[in-house]
Structure formats: structure tokens, C-alpha cells
Amino acid sequence: MWLPHKAVLAMKLGKNLLFILPPICQFDDDKVFFLRIYQRAVEACGQDYRSDKIWEAYVEWEKQTDKYRVLKLYRQFLGCVIQRHQYHFDKFREWIFFTPVKDMVTMEDIKELLTRHKAEAERRRIETEKKIKEEEEQARAAAEEAARLAEEQRKQAEEEEAKIQEDIKRMQEEQKMAVLGDQPPGIEEVTMEGVEDQEPAPVEAEEEAVQEEAVKEEAEEEEKVEDVVAMQEDAVEEIKEEEKPEAVEQMTEDFDKVDMEEPLPDSPEALTAKQEAAIREQMLLDMAPIHEKILAEIEEVVTFEDGIKRPYFHVKELERVQLKNWKNYLNLIIEKKNNPRTIILFERCLIACAFYEGFWIKYINFMSDIDKEVTSSIYRRACMVHLVKKPYIHLNWAAFEEERGNLEIAREALDHIDKGMPGLIAVILRRAGLERRTGNIEQGGDIIKLAIENCRGRETRDFWINKYIGYLQYSAKEIDVARKFLNEQIERNPRNKKLYVRLLDLEHSSGTQYPNCAAVVAVFDKALTSSLTIEEKAGFSHRRLTFLEEFGDNVTAIISAYEDHNKNWKTVLDEKKKESSVPIKDYKRRDNYSNNRNYNRDRNYNRDRNYNHQNNYNQNNFNNQGGAGGYNMNYNMQHAQQQQQYQQWYSQYAQQQQFAAQGAPQGAPQYQQPQQNRGY
């Protein structure tokens, strides 16, 4: 069976092999053989991001052997997320434009492509007409809106002009009234003639200039508005004139390529230039959406691909950044729900992360919903090759195979990890549980019993003894065997309190409805006559009283137990309780701190004092003796003086003791302890 991981592991070697072997191919059988090799290669690792070389070799080989399979192969090739996708797409376009149509597709494919191209042209024609109508409607609406705005602006300008004319007339009348004043009737005409010849007053001239400027500004604004309206109308007309020919030209160009009424050719040689162009165009149109989709996916994964710094296997641990990059990359591809691509990426990841259990578990969880057999092979590869000392994945493998009914494979998984790491509690219990669930009760008990014999340490041995007794009691239903085994262990280790407690629990729960009082009391008596400590025996005595009060059926036995407890064991329990109730105060640290502080203080004081005294004394002796002999003389004299002081102190101490015994009289001499000169 060709497994994906084998193809991925041999990808670089396969690239070189696929480039070397095709020139050797000479016979038809060889062509079939290499075709199968290429198909297996692209099936196993064609979804890999770095598999473009294999695809490229496959395409070149197909161009030389079967030219009609190249187009289909290119569609499969360019539909994969691989590196240098744009480069390979450009190569595909070159192949389309520079290769005769009869060498690319068969006659059936030609008819299909032309039919689809005609349908596509008809669809584009309908869309173009619809677009033209929409643009015409938009242009018409824009022209109407522009005309409406121009009419509104024209009316507004006329109203403003009429208003200005009225203001001018009113101002002229007011000016005439101001010039005429209160003249007597009959001379208005003469006065007006004189006024017309006179020059206007300075104020009136200024007012007229302001009015003229206002009129000019209004006229300029009206001209600007008219120019804007005219420009909008011209722009709308130009847009309509430009867009319509472009759309019509595009539609005409599409129809010029293939005439809708032109019949399909009978042979590739009967193709016209327009039909060949239409076939090439349809090939590119078929690949356009795939190309855009693949480019978008490449943008998503290129960051993760650039982050893979060590794609090969090495015993050195991967950096935390590398592990995070693989994890995020896998999560992204899993969300795509492309199973072949996800499997290839997992296989690539497990080359560099072969010793990381988390990635194997992630791969197994992904494959468990797809293929159970492949999941089993992944478990075997992980446990038997890479993770031989990882108990967690072995336990998962055993549970997976047991659930499927493969009991032998489950036993194989548990035996493998038990031999690699003997003594693991979880593994031994799983082995015993597997035998128990399959009905092999005796074999399960033998597994736990063997663990008792092979274990080291008192605590571990007690643990396995309790497990074995529980297995015999509840699974095997062999109370007598459990009792016998416990008695043997007590004889072997009579000072083990836990064995007596476990025997009590066994006897207490061995009865169907009511505990066997005689058997339990016998265990208590055995514990009280054993070599346990006094405190442990006192505890068993107290527990015996509690049991007899709850389950005893003979009051004489209860009274006897109380008397024995009060006589032999109550005092021990009271003392132990009293000791446990007294709080423990730790004065050691404080006393040590105080003593060390006083000792260091006295030591420093004496050291400084003696150093100064000895330094002066040694300097004098050194000067008197004229050499290093003064130091030796000082040391001898100091030692002699110290011995003399000690003798005086001992004699005074003896006299003081004698006086104290006889009753010392008043004024008796008191001794003084000499000061020790340590000379630090």
C-alpha cells in the first residue's frame, strides 16, 4: 500500500527520480509504468505546497506521450495551492496560445468548448444589452435632472434681474424727487431740463456706481450658471455617445469571433481562426475563477510557509515559535475541510515534529472521523517508531482498538509500553481491566499479583496489595483467597498497619447483609497481639470498641473490651491527645539569633581591643630587639602571663568554695575571673 507519509518523506528523492527516468522510457509498457508512478506521486503528495516540481515533470512527460491529457492535467495542477502558482499559470497561457488547437483537445472537446463559448457569448450579449439599457436610463435621468436644474436656475436669475430693475427704477424716482424739491407748479419742466444738464452730486454718483457693479456681478453669475448647465448637458451627451459605441463594439467583437449561426466543424482541420480564438478564450475563462481562488488561498498560507525554518527531522528540540507556527497552520487548513491537503500537511508537520505527542494526537483526532484503518496505522507508527516511551498515546491506542474489537492489538499496545517503561500504574491497571472486561478474570489477577512481586518500596507494595485484594473481592468474588493472601502478607510483614486495616475492611464487607462479628473481632485481637507500636494498638482498641457498639451481639464481649481498653490503652491515647493539644513553640531560631549577635559583638570588641594592645606591644618589642624576634618574645610573655592569671583564679576559686562551706567572715577576699586574651 502506498502511504502518504512515505511519499512525503521521499519527495526530494522522487523529484530527481521523476526527472531522470522518463528519458529511459522506450516501450509502451514503460509508459504505463511511469504513468502509474506519476499518478501515485501526485495522489500522495500533489497537495503539498512544495510539490510544483513533481507537477511540472508530470506535465512535461505528458506533453511528450499523450498531448490530449495535458489540458486536464493543467486543470488539476493549477487547482492545487502550490508555490510559484502565477509562474505556472503563465506557462499554461503560453501553452494555449502557441499550441495548435488540434494538438490540445479532441474533436469532442472542441464541440463542447464551442458550444459553451456560444452560450457564454449569448449570456454576455444579454448582459451587455441590459447594461446598455441601464446606462441609457441613467443618462436620460441625468439629462432630465440637469435640464430641471438649469430651468430652475434660469427662473431664479430672471426673478433676481427683475428685482434689480425695480430697485433701479425706485432709486431713480427717489433721486428725481430729491432734485426737484418743493418747486411751485408750472416750472417742473424747466427745472428738469436744467437738472438734466447739471452734473449729479457726488453721493448720487457713488450710488449709481455701486448699482452698476451689482448689476455686473449678477450678470456674471448668470453667465456662469448658464455655462455650467451647458457643460453638464454636453458631458451627458458625450457619455451617452462614448459608452454606447464601446458596449456595442465589445458585443460586436464577441459575436465576430464565433457566429451564432455558424455550424460546428466536423474535424479539427475545418476550424476557422475565429473558432480557434474562441476555443482558447474559453479555456482561459474556465481557469479564471480557479486562478483567483488559488491566489487568495496562497496569500493566506504564504506567511506560515515562510515561517517553517526546519522542515526536516532533527533530534534537537524545535523552538517555541516553530511549534506555534505549525499549530496555527494546521488549524487554518483544518477549517478549509480539504482532507487530502490536510493529511499532506500533517505528514509534513510530523517529519519535523515526530517527537511531539500533541501533534500525533491532533492528527489521530482528525483522522478518526474519516478512516478507522488509517487511524490505526497512525497509532502504530507513532507508538512503535517515534513515541515508544509515551504512555498516554499507548493507552489511547489500546482503548481505540478495544472499542473496535481488536483485542490482540490492544494487548500488543499495552505490552509494548509495559516493556518500555515497566511499573507504570496506569498501564498495569489498564492491562488488568482489559482482561477483566474480556472475561479473563484469572489473568487480570495474575497481572496485578506480578506487579506486587516486581514493585519496590513499601508504599508501592501496599498500594498493589490493596488493588489485588479489591480485585479478588469484587471482580473475582474470591473472599477466601483474598483473606488467605492478606494473612500471608501480615505474617511476612507483621508491623504493617495498613494490612490489618485492609483485613478489617475485608471481613467487615464480606458478609452479604451483616458483617461477621466474630471474624472482625478476631482481626482486632490479632492486631492487638502483634508487633505493632503501642499507639497503633491503642487505635485498634478504640476502633474495636466502636465496632462492638455498632454491630456487637454479646454485651459480655463489649464489657470485656472496655475493661481491656481502660486498663491497657486509654492512658496511651490520653497522653497522645494531650501532646497533640500543646502548641509547639520554636524558640530555637530566636535564641540562636540572640546568641550569635552577642557572640559576634563580643568577638569584634575583643578583637579590636586586643589587636590595638598587641600591635603597640609588638612594635615596642620589635624596635627593642631589632628584628622579628620581638614577636616571638611577645607571644611567650603573653602566654606566661595568661597561665599565671589562670593559676591565681583557680586558687581564689578554691578559697571561696572553702569559705562558703565554713561560712565566710566579713571582709573575706573575693576572687575575680581573669579576662581571657584571645588575641584574634
SSE topology sketch:
Elements: H1 4-9, H2 11-20, H3 28-45, H4 52-65, H5 70-77, H6 85-98, H7 107-180, H8 188-197, H9 202-257, H10 273-307, H11 320-336, H12 339-352, H13 357-367, H14 372-386, H15 391-404, H16 407-420, H17 425-437, H18 441-454, H19 458-475, H20 479-492, H21 497-510, H22 517-528, H23 534-551, H24 555-581, H25 588-625, H26 629-662
Structural class: mainly alpha
Count, helices: 26
- β-sheet strand percentage: under 5%
Largest sheet: none
Q: Return Rg in Å.
A: 56 Å
The sequence of SSEs as H and E is HHHHHHHHHHHHHHHHHHHHHHHHHH
Q: What coarse outline follows from CA principal-axis ratios?
A: elongated
Assign a percent range to the helix content: over 70%
Head-to-tail CA distance between termini: 88 Å
pLDDT average, as an integer? 75
The low-pLDDT segments are 1-17, 186-203, 243-260, 586-635, 664-680
Strands, total number: 0
Q: What descriptors fit this protein?
A:
78% helix; elongated; mainly alpha; disordered N terminus; 680 residues; disordered C terminus
Description of the structure:
There is one protein chain. The model is unreliable at 1-17, 186-203, 243-260, 586-635 and 664-680 (pLDDT under 50). The chain is elongated, with a radius of gyration of 56 Å. It has helices at residues 4-9, 11-20, 28-45, 52-65, 70-77, 85-98, 107-180, 188-197, 202-257, 273-307, 320-336, 339-352, 357-367, 372-386, 391-404, 407-420, 425-437, 441-454, 458-475, 479-492, 497-510, 517-528, 534-551, 555-581, 588-625, 629-662. The protein is mainly alpha-helical and 680 residues long. Helix 6 packs antiparallel against helix 10 (273-307), helix 12 (339-352) packs antiparallel against helix 13 and helix 21 (497-510) runs antiparallel to helix 22.
